[in-house]
Amino acid sequence: MSTMFYNPVTTYSGNGSIQRISDLTEGQKVALVIFPEARQLGLTERIQKLLGKRLIYIVEDIQPNPDVSQLAQTYQQFWKQTADCQVIVAVGGGSTIDTAKALMAGTASGRFDELQAWLAEEQTFSPTHCKTLITVPTTAGTGSEVTPWATIWDHARQKKYSLHLPCTWPSIAIIDPELMLSLPVHITISTGLDALSHALEAIWNVNANPVSDTLAIAAAEDILRYLPELHQDPRNLQLRSHMALAALKAGLAFSNTRTALAHSISYEMTLRYGLAHGIACSFCLPYVLGLAWGCDPSRDQILRRLFGPDREYAQAALTSFLHRLNVATQFSDYGVSAPEAEQIIQSAMQGARGKNFIGSDNT
Ligand SMILES: [Fe+2]
After folding, report:
1. What's the gap in Å between 239 CA and the centre of ligand 1?
2. Is 89 within 8 Å of 132 (Cβ atoms)?
3. pLDDT tens-digit profile of 180-224?
């Protein structure tokens, strides 16, 4: 059987690689989308200096889990002010990069509700204009820097939209571990676990292929090894570099497979209980691992390599890994009753991501 792996994003990585944004944007007008705390860290000013006169617009009021209510105003203002700007540079974590992806796709009316209507109907949408996106992740986790997907929330309607268009692939990702040194420990852990979830979800996935497997295994091995060390030593640049590359590999893996059941469960946990994405998509990994085991011998072989000889041993090993990072692993730990947990799992299985899971009933 022939398989395909495709990813069009050019990646630059290494300490100090942020410097490249000057050369990469030469002769173009740039809008910067950056997380609000970056100004206090001196990062916004540093990037302003690197971009010089080509920088014409800054968006920095980024909310965690970007919501349509706030995006609408930002979007309309953005398109009014940046008509002659070709490039967006997005610097931040998943919420920042996802906001940039929502901004880059221009509607005919210049209004966000036009885009939102397309998202709500899950119809193919052809933007009338699309800007080029350069992503600079400041967390080792999201993978959004090398995928075309953005998650957009409508908390008022208890909905989550997935934006993905041919034009929302970033053109370039710059992975600079030095930018991750100041990340608080709890965000380091939650984003690192998001990356672990991406790696495992790429493995227990009906769309897995030999290239995504290679990337996902390497990512999972490195995260299992280095994230606990980084938890103890968050200023260690070498460990930051290992995690940055592991998250990139996990992102590349799931850019081809998409995510699966753990992410499908996470969306309900975020909507109903406000859980941070990285925790919401990782607390249930031992449970999902238990469901995946025994579905496909080739997947079992990989899971055995990562976690141990049999299902119970593997689940215990992954549970203990999460507990060492102070992450509780039961639905009840988050206030979810057993019947509600069952309902969340069943509805997650039916979701688009749930159907990517090897243990789901795809018939
Ligand atoms: Fe994720």
Report:
1. 21
2. no
3. 999 999 999 999 999 999 999 999 999 999 999 999 999 999 999
